[in-house]
Amino acid sequence: MDIPVSATMSKICFLDHEETEAVHEDEMTNPTEADKVGSLVQHLLLHSYKASDICCTSTSVGQLKLIHRRLRFAGIGTKAWEQDARALRASGDGRRPTAPEGMTFWGPTSEAVQLMTIGKIRKDEVRILIVSTVQVRDLGDADVIPYQVDDPSAQVMAYLRDSGRIYTLLTRAKEGLFVLGNAKLLRKQSALWSQVLDGFEKQGAMYTKLPIELAADSVRGD
Asked: Rounded to two decimals, what is the model's pTM?
């Protein structure tokens, strides 16, 4: 299996961090990752990318809601296919008419960042893919109280361990791939994550701080 981190991509980054996730009722979020996703999108938009070039995806519906709110607060349009859009409507923003069928827009319909959960990933390619993995804590650590089976962590971990889904996800990016998460935890989830992270390391694309200089490279839209 080829490693889905291609040298032809002009921008790749794995942001390795230890800012832990939060669980509230039936949703898991990582506010630090959501903030960094928002910052990255804003910088990309300032350097010749269009909102429609960018797709933000996450392992958690709760995290997708948080990213949606961050982007809308910054005045950035968002869009989602109907299944994810139903959850995002709870974020309180009014919605525009759906066009194409099944797509919901918040803000301008001509320019909007695509939002989707990993479970709803489609086969369409995108120029820039930003992935928020959300979970950082290792449930096997003795000092961490394990979540119950019916907690949202179960779904997040299922996505992180699904090699087929992850491979499909990461191969959707044509020009830029940005992944936010904890490398140590991800390496434990599957051999594919280890391959992916090795690919990032070989290309010198592992970071502990958001590499804004990557977004500042001269890249022109169509």
From this structure: 0.83
